[in-house]
Amino acid sequence: MKILITGSGGFIGSRLAAKLVEKNYVVTGLIHEQKIDNSSIKTIYADLTEPNFTIPDEMYDVVFHLAAVTPMEKNKKKIKKVNYDGTVNLFNQIKNKTKFFVYVSGLGVFGDVENQIINEKTPLKPHTDYSKIRLEAQHYLESNCKKNSIPFTVVYLGEVYGNGGWFTSQIVNRLKKGRFKMPKSGEYYRCVVHVDDVVTALITIAENNAYDESFIITDSSPVLFKDFIFFICDKLGLKHPGSIPIFLAKTVLGGDLVKLLTTSVKTSNEKISKICKFAYPTYKEGIQAVISEIK
Question: Which of 2, 60, 137, 211 is deepest in the core (most CB within 10 A)?
Fold first, then answer.
């Protein structure tokens, strides 16, 4: 297979690209500012927010669209410019060059479902500006892929952890320095997934031609955020952190991010589990593996 990955210099994209190369696929990485050290990956430097960027006239079996700014970005104009306008620009460049488009989103598009277990049939009702923009981009792709007879699949990721990315910078490093505080005492459920299992799931979707589908990619164990953090502390031999009032958290992190973080979410990963076996079925196995790697 020939595969194009946007965001291929990022936490997930770089690992996806490397794994695909290991499987002897031809991989092209579209990046903006990061660098790719793997010489087996063809690199395209492009800014998705610029409508006139170009992609070589090649046919790709799969396009994985991972490039996006995270909920940590407070500038709403930048979020829309990258996550929506960038998606539109990408599609206009790729619509005649791909046989399958896979869009990578997040659980925030489901909104606040209270105690309901989320699955792929749960209505999408985002309750933050960030997630509303992500859903707008999804709807654009769904509509235009259909018009152009391109199979389209969307995946909704839980919080992806591993050695690197937000897990290291925002959790592990801050816990070690005693600077980590939990909004709302951590009394809300989150759904997490090890980065290696995300990569495996995405590749499985491509290899199985899982066209015109949606998949939730999380592990099998929703966890109270405080229990997740306390487990990390115990494995690192660190003191359990305290909490921070919501209004202070919003001042530091922004309202959208705090709302996303403190909304209880419980998912079913039954659908993806039918075609993909996870190496880390719960956060406990995954965190232990990551901590061992960090140490």
Answer: 137
Instruction: Please check whether residue 106 is in contact with residue 256, taking contact to mean a CB–CB distance below 8 angstroms.
Output: no
Count structural domains, the chain: 1
SS3 of residue 285 by DSSP: helix
- CATH number of the domain that residue 73 is part of: 3.40.50.720
In a domain, 91, yes or no: yes
Q: Specify the DSSP class assigned to residue 116.
A: P
What is the phi/psi pair of residue 69, to 5°?
-80, 150
Q: What is the pLDDT along the chain (295 residues), one digit of tens a residue?
A: 999 999 999 999 999 999 999 999 999 999 887 677 777 899 999 999 998 898 988 999 999 999 999 998 889 999 999 999 999 999 999 999 999 999 999 999 999 998 899 999 999 999 999 999 999 999 999 999 999 999 999 999 999 999 998 999 999 999 999 999 999 999 999 999 999 999 999 999 999 999 999 999 999 999 999 999 999 999 999 999 999 998 888 888 888 889 999 999 999 999 999 999 999 999 999 999 999 998 7
